[in-house]
Amino acid sequence: MTKNRDQAVHPAFEQVRTHRIDTLNIDVEEYRHRKTGATHLHLASDNDENVFFVALRTFPMNSMGVAHILEHTALCGSERYPVRDPFFMMIRRSLNTFMNAFTSSDWTAYPFATKNRKDFDNLLSVYLDSVFFSKLDEVDFSQEGHRLEFEEPADPSTPLVHRGVVYNEMKGAMSAATSQLWQILSSHLFPTTTYHYNSGGEPDHITDLRYEDLLQFYRHHYHPSNAIFATYGNIPAIEHHERFESLALARFDQQDIELPVHDEKRFFAPVRADQAYPVSAGEDTDHKTHIVMGWLLGHSFDLQENLEAHLMASVLLENSASPLLRALETTDIGHAPSPMCGLEDSNREMTFVCGIEGSEPGRAGDLEALIESVLETVAKEGVSEHRLEAILHQLELHQREIAGDQFPYGLQLIMASISPMVHGGDPVELLDLEPVLARLREKIKDPQYVPNLIRRMLLDNPHRVTLTLRPDDQMESRQQKAVAEALERRKSTLTEDETKAIVDRAAALEERQNRKDDDSILPKVDLSDVPLQLPEPEARILEDFPATAYAQGTNGLVYEQVVLPLPKMSEEELLLLPLYTTCLTEVGCGELDYLAMQDRMSAESGGISAFSVAKGRVDDVQDLSGYLVLSGKALARNKDKLTQLLRDVFTSARFDEHARIREIVAQIRSRREQAVTGSGHALAMGAASQGLSPGAQLAFKLGGLAAIKGVKALDDSLKEEQALKDLCSKLAAIHGRIQEQARQFLVVGESEQLDPMIDDLRSAWPRASSIETELWKVPPVSETVRQAWLTSTQVNFCAKAYSTVAVDHPDAAALSVLGGFLRNGFLHRAIREQGGAYGGGAAQDSVNGTFRFFSYRDPRLVETLDDFDGALNWLQETDHDPQSLEEAILGVVGQLDKPRSPAGEAKHAFHSRLFGRTPEQQKRFRERVLAVTIDDLKRVAAEWLVPERASTAVITSPQHRSVLESAGLDIHEL
User: Fold this and answer.
1) How many CA atoms lie within 13 Å of 478's alpha carbon, on the beta-carbon side?
2) What is the dihedral of CA 311, 314, 316, 317, to 10 degrees?
3) Fewer CB near the last or first residue (10 Å), C or N of the chain?
4) Helices 658-689 and 323-330, interaxial angle, to 10°?
5) Residues 49-82: tens digit of each pLDDT
């Protein structure tokens, strides 16, 4: 690693080093700001999706959520942009591909990404001003963090309540048993460092945070001397430096910042802990105990320690053939492995966790004995070099793959670098794994290497905690009673002046929320900056073989899919489809059992999966068609093995492994039950939409709330051996029908890989065109629902849905723009700012022909449902600014233009064409979006969104039963 003396460097910065990483196709450039000592990591790439990221080291030493609340409040107005909400306003005025802010356990970051240079400069000026020159208004602190308010803010005779966005966000986040499990385990593993505390904030502690604490934390931590800048893309580093210096850094000097960063004091003996978590009153508590074991390991920023820990964790837990995961999947101590299983390497010191869920109190000793026995066996017998090579193969594949379908690729690379930068390690080493992988390949030739790792890291490591987290159906009522009594006591001691101050603050907050700021001071892009059409990757469609190939820059990976139309199925078979697609790649194949197949997949591929997809026609959502997709990826050198692997699974998957399929059902149940608190808004929208189109109904049955209930019932039924045999027979029958379907293939890779891949396909699938059987069809549906789904949650998720139109209908574009228009102009203020929910909005789903309103982690119920109707009244009764329309149009275009990974672009293009989403249709939709008027919005709302035709669904806790019954909602238990 040498300095690049030819490259121009801004005088305010010094270049520390440059380093080329060929496997990632980037040049890593590291700089230091001369005056403040701020570091800057620039990942130079020819990618036009440029990423900016600034992180501050933040080490809170309590659970009041100061770092998290500061992250929110810092984005509520700054020196150059003294408007109420520049962050959310810029989301609307931008073509960003990503905008957010994160609070981690030991850093707070503000990232964005965009493909438009003007947009990048606009966002950079707002972000730098928000971070380093934030206003931190006390009124914003009360909105975003917490505040005491009367239930009716202007009426002191009503009860006192706690309100605040972060307060409600964390009530929702900590409703999940898994969130509590991780936080409680961390508090025991880290008794003296920042990781002991909940950096997001514990709701009961958030209410203790004072505004003065926030200001002090900001002054101490938000300084360039404590900052890490990172960028990715094709903008040269010197241009970033010019902007960093002029917009922020020139105004600061070096500052010595003391932060409480140290290694945890080590235990001399393992610790056991036993704590409770709340479930709904009267809820069955059988099989709802979590038991996990956690070890504290070495430094995450020491690359050798880090990769050895990853190697060790993969040996034990990578897949069902791994000895520890196999033991956890097959033990009768619990129903399924804990979702906590794995290595956590984002903190200063790593943790390794394993355990089970679905257990009972008192089984901790049994679990410890099981895990220790597995570890002793592995340490004694060792691991084959072939297996270790497969694990290193996975590390190499993971490093090479250009991801970015969910998260900008450049941001993923930066996130991988942040932990060593925070803790004093080398980010370049962590990005350039090739030399270390080469060293590990030499080390694994020693048969004692991995056994010694397991002994050192786990068996001989006394810094270990075994945590039992058991359900308590009275705990929630005790908590609520304690909060209510504390608020009653607080109210009884209020002086006249204190009462007036609470009322006045609520009035000031409402005034601020309703104030129309001069947003012209914020920079923006406009419709003239929007490209008229984005290029689509070029497809090569073979004439003599049913394959489509795309040449894409995939950095040495290949991707392959087998695509088949779904055959006619009964209702029972249809409901089993998600289980079938999961089992297809998780069971044995031919003469290999599932354990041997897991090893083979790990050695030969980057993983294979199966899934089903169904969509209506572009002009008729009631006419649904569906496909099954068998998908895989591999390093290019294994392309022939990938083709054969997919062929073998398709032709020879075994559904006679009854015990394995029983385990898979239990695991699916656990995952689905845990999805409610994290994805409650999506599940509520799905429930509200279920009767409005076949696609919405299918999504509700296969992946929504009905699917959660269904898999619980299925899991319970499999206690009978005959029921399990019957299930396996049904899955085998579905597979037999799938095998009869006509096949087509998708291949993606670099241009030189395509011809060999197609040759492999021809060889492996000599009779690719099968006789077509009768295809799957579903009848049209049209039914409104009014439902409430009850579960254990401290917050609510509300939704309303309306039947609308398919994507090629002339009104689809206006309805798509309407969602953002209502969110920006009414719903954000009413539901998030005034209502205190973490989020809320509206969106058109043209795939299923529905328009949905939603709220997320919401303290309110009926009031939010009324706000959904209020948004429609506001639309018709208010004079609207043309700028608001332009912002809503930009939001739709930004979603249409969101970049994908190279492979993701090809897959998206192929599957769009599969369902008639041609470039011509997409161009037509785009042109309609750009032509939408405010009159169009009012017209389509009046035509399609009539409140009397709304379907409603909420997810809430049983304590609201009487309110729900009064509102006329049908009640369902989850």
Assistant:
1) 8
2) 160
3) N
4) 80
5) 999 999 999 999 999 999 999 999 999 999 999 9
Provide the β-strand partners of residue 228: 39, 55
Got the DSSP string for 455-503? IIIIIT---EEEEEEEEETTHHHHHHHHHHHHHHHHHHT--HHHHHHHH
How far, in Å, CA of 283 to CA of 789, rounded?
Answer: 14
Question: Which are the contacts of 878, defined by CB distance < 8 A and separation ≥ 6?
Answer: 825
Which residue, 42, 34, 38, 37, is CA-closest to 18? Answer: 42
> What angle, 0 to 180 degrees and rounded to 10, lies between the N-to-C axes of helices 812-822 and 882-896?
110
Say which residue the tokens 């579960």 belong to: 791
Helices 364-381, 303-317: crossing angle, 10 deg rounding: 110
Distance of alpha carbon 71 from alpha carbon 750, whole angstroms: 42
972 forms beta bridges with: 789
DSSP 958: G
Greatest alpha-carbon pair distance for the chain in Å reads 86
* DSSP annotation string for 896-915: HT----HHHHHHHHHHHHHT
Give the tens place of pLDDT for each residue, 108-165.
Answer: 999 999 999 999 999 999 999 999 999 999 999 999 999 999 999 999 999 999 999 9
Tell me how far apart the alpha carbons of residues 66 and 145 are, in angstroms, rounded to a whole number: 9
**Residue 676 falls in which region: left (phi positive, over 0), alpha (psi -120 to 50) or beta:** alpha
Q: How confident is the model at residue 4 (pLDDT cuts 50, 70, 90)?
A: very low
CA 82 to chain centre: 32
Residue 32: phi and psi, rounded to 5, are -135, 130
Q: List residues bridging with 103 in a β-sheet.
A: 108
Q: Is beta strand 464-472 parallel, antiparallel or unpaired with respect to 336-337?
A: unpaired
Query: For residue 209, what is the DSSP state?
Result: -
Helix (H) or strand (E) holding 242: helix 237-247
Contacts with 269 (C-beta within 8 Å, 6 or more apart), sequence order: 462
Instruction: Name which of 398, 770, 774 is nearest 562 in CA terms.
Output: 770
Q: What is the pLDDT of residues 636-656, one digit of tens each?
A: 999 999 999 999 999 999 999
* Alpha-carbon gap, residue 953 to 964, rounded angstroms: 11
Alpha-carbon distance 180 to 871, whole Å? Answer: 36
Q: Which helix (H) or strand (E) holds 935?
A: helix 934-944
pLDDT value, residue 696:
95
Both tokens of 281, joined, read 């009153």
Residue showing tokens 């040759």: 759
For residues 883 and 906, what is the distance between their CA atoms, to the nearest angstrom? 35
Residue 36: DSSP 8-state: T
Distance between CA atoms of residues 854 and 685, nearest Å: 7
Amino acid residing at 192? T
8 Å CB contact between 660 and 727: no
Q: Whose structure tokens read 């998908």? A: 631
Q: Token pair for residue 713?
A: 């019932």
The total number of residues written for the chain in this structure: 974
User: Can you give the pTM of this predicted structure?
Assistant: 0.90
Per DSSP, the three-state class of 954 is strand
DSSP characters over 178-199: HHHHHHHHHHHH-SSSGGGS-T
**Which residues, including other chains, have CB under 8 Å from residue 196's CB and lie 6 or more apart?**
186, 187, 190
- Beta bridge partners, 176, equal none
Pairing of strands 39-44, 26-33: antiparallel
CA–CA dist 881, 374 (Å, integer): 66
For the segment 665-674, the average pLDDT, to the nearest whole number, is: 89
- Report yes or no: 59 and 259 within 8 Å, Cβ to Cβ: yes
- What is each CA distance from 346 to 180, 221, 306, 350, 385, in whole angstroms? 18, 20, 10, 7, 28
Q: Which residues contact 427 (CB under 8 A, 6 or more apart)?
A: 28, 30, 41, 417, 418, 420, 421
